[in-house]
Amino acid sequence: MLNKTIMRLAIPIAVGALALTACGSDDGGGGGNGADGPTYKIAFQGPLSGPNAALGENMGNAVELAIDEANESGDYEFTLEYMRSDDRGEEGEASSAAQLVIDDEDVIAVVGPAFSGAAAVAAPRYGQAGIPAVTSSATRADLTQQGWPTFLRAVPNDSAQGAGMAAYLAAQAGVEKVVVIDDTQPYGVGLADVAQEGLEDAGLEVVRQSVPNETPDYTSAARNVVTEDADALIYAGYYSDAGPFAVKLEEQGFEGIQLAGDGVMDGEFLDLAGSSAANWFFTCPCTSAEDDEATQGFAERFEDKYSQAPGVYSAESYDVTSMIIAAIAALGDDAESGALYDHLVANEYEGLTKTFAFDEQGEFTNQTIFLYEAEGEGFDYLGSVEDLTTG
Predict the structure, then answer these.
(1) 20 to 30 Å CA-CA from 153: which of 124, 250, 320, 379?
(2) CA distance 31 to 48
């Protein structure tokens, strides 16, 4: 295990053997405090269009906010610029989105990719280019096991989230049978697999079903769930499908507990599901930016700038960007992508949401999962699954 040093402004370390790229331009520009110093770009890769664009916009806006605040702070001798790269959250778009970032020699790091399928495609390319890719939201468990040399995950993975789902339902009185549904996509299948294993280990009966994303009509799928006479349902997928599915589940008379993961916990789900969102619960490795005292100031600044409340992973994306900025400042004249990656791996960073630290595989070391409930026009923060299930 690497020794860690907790930092706000990180402590410089020796540059490793990783290829060094993205040294930053020396022409200033961008209007930041360090206009006479180098300029570094921090990119965000995620879904900025398509059915899940709301999730990407929530994260991308937080990255931009952290960059703008750093430029305006007067604390740094360099200027930061923000770059957006849209992959629609799709594997087929991820390679070209990553290449767009790689082709810009001023990019020193990437926040993302946001979705697991896209990360599996893009992370190897960033590794070949020597650019750190720090995802604040891609949770598929095996992503950090592929040996990509510059990939870091700054969020608990689906092994923790799926286990949290299972632990919560196993602790509920009267829950003996659970239908577990995946959307046939990498994130959904991986999350459902872990949840199913945890439920079975807890002695619950599990019925596994798959309902492809973008199914035109969820009536038949909802009817199949009701036919099983289960006490609870887990849906592993994204809000764009969970919303219309929730409507059909209510129409077909499903009355059990309905539990979904972080990919569903977005305001768009509430809009799509309407009154059918009642009795839906959500696990998420994310904290509540508005309910957590440590992030309330961030939430207010976010809403002032973008005229909407922060969403899922907004606060975590802000923290990851701030961590990268602190590392650039600590490295000083040695700031470049290879040195930046080494620095991030070897140091801890105290963010607003949590302490960020990584193991030798680039995996996040804090695996806490939180529970939320759909409530009116938002999500009611209930606490950590561990606290809720163990007292």
Answers:
(1) 379
(2) 25
